[in-house]
UniProtKB/TrEMBL annotation:
HAMAP family: MoaA_B. The keyword Isomerase does not apply. Monomer and homodimer. The keyword Transport does not apply. Pfam families: Mob_synth_C, Radical_SAM. This is GTP 3',8-cyclase. Residues 4-222 form the Radical SAM core domain. Pathway: Cofactor biosynthesis; molybdopterin biosynthesis. GO terms for biological process: Mo-molybdopterin cofactor biosynthetic process. It comes from Thermotalea metallivorans. Binds 2 [4Fe-4S] clusters. Binds 1 [4Fe-4S] cluster coordinated with 3 cysteines and an exchangeable S-adenosyl-L-methionine and 1 [4Fe-4S] cluster coordinated with 3 cysteines and the GTP-derived substrate. The gene is moaA. Belongs to the radical SAM superfamily. MoaA family.
Length: 321
């Protein structure tokens, strides 16, 4: 289905929980968050109903997110049900990787095609610091398990943070020399906990590109992809740069989002939401109408790079990564 600007909206990002087993400093408060009552979040059956209806309207790409999606009980069953929808052609997940060693094979068997793994440092102590206690070894073992299970191509999402990991840009890039993975550098966005961080620690991807010598542009044919890709000479993998601040990709945005508490968002950086949970529980028959309204409400672009921009009220973990 097209929005009012002629963009083909075929991608739904589904947050299944706002809970996480890490406490990343730019994402979650140190004390964590209060667990919502069961009735405050969508059931897996309700999530599936939204996805199925969206698929009938032209959505063919779904990404499962959180919080950390692998802490949601019943996640494998949901993956299998979505994978069995014939109209869904691409089913992926964004995860912090901590539980991947345990789940990788089962996720593949359930029908998941690939994973994106959030990883901001390759150094054990730094990882422990930024995540407030996370174990880097567990993530790396999860990456290995995902590779063996065939959840490929594996994409490593690296949020660039000044005075934290900007001295590791070259190290991350070198991962693509011997491995057919994709390393993607993402500019720090002013959302929730990260709003203050972005003011003081923002690094543009222009700076990151200057640190990596010999980059060769690669075009994958997908205009809706937020990443611009490159390769190192002789490299097996790719290096991507996602620039939501310095060079936004709103013109070709093809996505809407479903939050764990049942709100459809036409844009990550706008507070506008549609209450699909209330509609589901009120027995509204035409769920598709609400999805259509969400698509038609997509704005031209975000206002992150405007001086009068106000960060969205929700933290990223409450929206979905």
């Amino acid at each position: 289905m097209e929005d009012t600007l002629g963009r083909n909206i075929n991608y739904l990002r589904v947050s299944v929980t706002d809970l996480c087993n890490l406490r990343c400093q730019y994402c979650m408060p140190e004390e964590g968050i209060a667990k919502k009552h069961h009735g405050e979040i969508l059931s897996l059956e309700e999530i599936f109903q939204v996805v199925k209806t969206a698929a009938d309207l032209g959505i063919h790409k779904v990404r499962i997110t959180g919080g950390e999606p692998l802490v949601r009980k019943g996640i494998l069953e949901l993956i299998e049900n979505i994978a069995n929808l014939q109209k869904i052609k691409d089913l992926a997940m964004t995860t912090n990787g901590i539980l991947l060693r345990q789940y990788a094979s089962d996720l593949k068997a359930a029908g998941l095609k690939r994973v994106n793994i959030s990883l901001d440092t390759l150094r054990e102590e730094r990882y422990k610091n930024i995540t407030r206690g996370g174990k880097f070894k567990a993530v790396w073992e999860g990456i290995e398990a995902a590779r063996k299970a065939g959840l490929c191509p594996i994409k490593i999402n690296v949020v660039l943070i000044g005075d934290f990991n900007d001295d590791e840009i070259e190290d991350f890039a070198k991962l693509t020399l011997e491995e057919s993975m994709e390393v993607r550098f993402i500019e720090l966005m002013p959302i929730g906990q990260a709003a203050a961080w972005a003011k003081n620690r923002f690094i543009s991807n222009h700076t990151a590109k200057e640190r990596i010598k010999g980059l060769i542009p690669v075009y994958d044919g997908d205009r809706s992809s937020p990443a611009k890709y490159y390769q190192l000479p002789g490299g097996k993998g790719k290096i991507g740069f996602i620039n939501p601040i310095s060079n936004h990709f709103c013109k070709h945005c093809n996505r809407i989002r479903l939050t764990a508490d049942g709100r459809l968002k036409p844009c990550l950086h706008w507070d506008q939401e549609m209450d699909v949970k209330a509609a589901l529980r009120a027995g509204v028959e035409d769920l598709g109408e609400i999805i259509q309204k969400t698509i038609l409400a997509k704005p031209l672009q975000h206002t992150l790079n405007r001086s009068d921009h106000a960060p969205v009220e929700r933290d990223m973990y409450r929206i979905g990564g």
